[in-house]
Amino acid sequence: MNRMGNRKNGALLLSSIAISNLGEWVYFIALNLIVLELTHSPFAVSILYVLSPIANVIMSFWAGSWIDRLNQKKVMIFFDIFRGGCVLLLAFSSSLLVIYVVSFLIYMANAVFTPTSMAYMTKMVPETNRQRFNALKNFVQSCGFLLGPSIAGILFMIGTPEMAIKINAFALFSSATLLFFLPTMVRQCEVIEKVSFHVIKKDWARIYHFAKSVKFLTVIYMLFSGVTLLMTAIDSLEAAFATNVLGLSNSEYGFLVSIAGLGIVLGAILNTIFSKNLRLGHLMSGGAIFTAVGYLIYATSHQFTAAAIGFFLLTFAFSFANTGFLTFIQEEIPSEIMGRFISIFSVFESIGIILLTIIFGIGAQLISLQFTVIIGSILLLGISLGILYNVLKTPNNQMGI
């Protein structure tokens, strides 16, 4: 594939990601409001947050075996259209049960789409361009984080949450249209096994032996998964922390979230500009450590300014850590087994998210909200130092430190 073709395909894929990501933010906020209006119950809204990891556990057991054996471009197009149809159905439903069931189907589709897109990107983007591409991907996703809630707010002012959800359906259909123009990446082999329980069992064994043979990759992957788990658990207490510990109003909390979004965007921009000068070891270890430091500043704060500094630092730093990690796994995991590797590890990650979120919730309720967030931040720093330790001891200084 020539250089011009690479740029065109990269632009198409990034545009597809940007459109669907922006739509998802609008949809998620709108769905929260619809459920709250129907039930007037925060607990009913919280169920939406639990559905995603449960769907991940169910789908990830077998999805990787399917992903690596099919045309990944067609899989992505199918699930964009499928999710768009489900989202459109939500806009016309006033039944809480239907909303939960359809939302669960969307989360199941997400559980397949995410590793599929990762495997496809690894095949499509040349190795020399991956770090820059991942930085650009982080940038467009961070723009969604920053702009999505603002667009949702404008749509709610001029219309209804149902209208916002319809717009997300249109965004997913548009994303599928853009994916149609991308190249079909050649499969590694012509003989495609039919996915069965025996094949899935064999795939799990293959990934187990592969993970044992590349201990450095496995340790880094598990440590970074630990970072993700702790961040998710801490973030689940974010709104309560902002209002109960910091005493922020809704508008002040909204401004705090905007500062976090600014940190992501600025980090992604600098990441993109200096992608050729930043080594993966620096990105992963330094990014993870400063993310943890940002959480500690936030966790120990008692007023808005300190919390804002912590929020900005953690999102700014995580932008670098995430780019480094994505590029690292794309370089270390063979593309023909990437779907299986990511899906299998996602099973354990999702179980961890469910358990850790429950534990943190109980800790905040029975002990202290701020103490729980501080403990989570200290654990996060410990895992981040573990990433640094493993990067430093890498043979032949592979990771660039």
TrEMBL record:
Source species: Viridibacillus arvi
Protein name (Swiss-Prot/TrEMBL): Permease
GO CC terms in record: plasma membrane
Iron found in the keyword field: no
Domain Major facilitator superfamily (MFS) profile: 1-394
Tagged with keyword Acetylation: no
Database matches in InterPro entries: MFS, MFS_dom, MFS_trans_sf
Organism classification: Bacteria, Bacillati, Bacillota, Bacilli, Bacillales
A Pfam match: MFS_1
Subcellular location: Cell membrane
Transmembrane segment boundaries: 12-36, 42-63, 98-118, 139-158, 216-234, 254-273, 280-298, 304-329, 341-363, 369-392
Signal sequence bounds: none
Highest taxon, organism lineage: Bacteria
Protein topology in the membrane: Multi-pass membrane protein
GO molecular function: transmembrane transporter activity
Keywords (A to Z) from UniProt: Cell membrane, Membrane, Transmembrane, Transmembrane helix, Transport
